[in-house]
Amino acid sequence: xxxxxxxxAVILALGRMNSLYQQPVFDxxxxxxxxSGQGAILYYQGPRADSYKKQFIADSAPLGAExxxxxLNAGDFIFAPDASGTHFDACIRLGPTSYLFCNNxxxxxxxxxQSPHWLAAQKPFVDLAAKFHADPLE
Length: 138
Prior knowledge:
CATH topology: Beta-Lactamase
Largest sheet: 5 strands, antiparallel
Distance between the termini: 6 Å
Low-confidence stretches: none
Strand content: 15-25%
CATH architecture: 2-Layer Sandwich
Order of helices and strands: HEEHHEEEHH
Shape: globular
Radius of gyration: 14 Å
Number of domains: 1
Strand order of the largest sheet: 2-1-5-4-3
Mean pLDDT: 89
Number of strands: 5
């Protein structure tokens, strides 16, 4: 998959999640490329356009152990149930060096999961992960 197709798939999936959840599940997301000792932001959508880069490493720390040790394959995802504020709540590995980080800047995953709409809203997220399993971002 190319970057533009990946971005479009993310936008559509997160839109479906929001519709099923009846409010935004994630109000912020980042497509990032991470390689040994380096990283690059490929795309950002959210309320902190002017400041998210400064905090990216700290904000991804709750997901860092799984991401940093290469335990995820393309299409695998993880959640950080207790991440709060600007700390990222979820991550999907999109390809060999690319990731999608998602965040709700007002609520943690534990709070999001309390809604009865969460069960339905998970399906587009899982479907998105499956797309990248089948066709990783290059």
